[in-house]
Each structure stands twice: as structure tokens, then as C-alpha cells.
Amino acid sequence: MARGGFPGMGGMNMNNLVKQAQKMQKQMAAMQEELNEKTLEMTSGGGAVKVVISGKKEIKELKINPDVVDPDDVEMLEDLILSAVNEAIRQADEMYNNAMGKLTGGMGMGGMF
């Protein structure tokens, strides 16, 4: 084995590999910060409930149309809120995964950085 190289790595030395990993880590950190600043808006019930969520998955705003507030049907309102919140979280995850996938070239990094 050549000094600083690994068999089957095509002569790539450890220093280059570490530099590439550090560069990718910095890019991922910058991307995460950018994504954390973005917001997504989801609605349910034809706009009866609106949720604004950050890239950090923090609920920033929740609006409920007063017309859907029925004291005799609280369950429907609960379902509308859950639907909007869950869709917002799903969209935030998708936004994050798409951005990181572009950065890593589709490699599953699974919390590596």
C-alpha cells in the first residue's frame, strides 16, 4: 500500500479525503442555516386552517378561520389542525432532504455531519 493511500481508492490520499469531507461539512452547515430561515405555509379544509412552519420545524403561525369553529364539532377542527401541521412537517422534511441530496449528490449521509 502506498503511503497515505488505501487499496482500491485509486491513489486518493487521506488528506484529500479529509479536505473534501470538511468542505462538504461546511457546505452542509451553510445549507442547514439557509433552510432553517425558510418558511412553508400549509392549509387544510380549503384554507380553513393555515400553518406557517420554519425549516427548523417550528410552528411560526397558526390561523383558524372563525367560520370553522363549531363548539359542537371540535373534532373536525382538531383534524384540520393536525392535517395542516403534519403536512407542513412533511414538506419541511422534503425541502431539507431535497437540498441535502443535491449537496451530497444523492449519497445517504444519515446524520454523518
Brief digest:
The chain has a domain at 39-104: 2-Layer Sandwich (Ybab, Chain: A), CATH 3.30.1310.
Account of the protein in words:
Strands 1-2-3 form a 3-stranded antiparallel sheet. The chain has a domain at 39-104: Nucleoid-associated protein YbaB-like domain (Ybab, Chain: A, 2-Layer Sandwich), CATH 3.30.1310. A hairpin with a 4-residue loop joins strand 1 and strand 2. By secondary structure, it is of the alpha+beta class. It contains 2 helices and 3 strands; from the N terminus they run H-E-E-E-H. It starts with 13 loop residues before the first helix and ends in a 9-residue tail after the last helix.
Distance between the termini: 29 Å
For the record, the CATH architecture of one domain stands as 2-Layer Sandwich
Q: Supply the CATH superfamily name of one domain.
A: Nucleoid-associated protein YbaB-like domain
Residues in helices, as a percent range? 40-55%
